[in-house]
Amino acid sequence: MYAADDTDTDFDVDDSIALYLKEISRIPLLKR
Questions:
Q1: CA–CA separation, 32 vs 17, rounded Å?
Q2: How confident is the model at residue 18 (pLDDT cuts 50, 70, 90)?
Q3: Distance CA 14, CA 5 (A)
């Protein structure tokens, strides 16, 4: 059960990174 807790935190971080990457991808400056 402890492992599940750890995974939960990992997922949270992954979500944040995914959102960050998505926002960056939206910027044309980086896609140039």
A1: 21
A2: confident
A3: 14
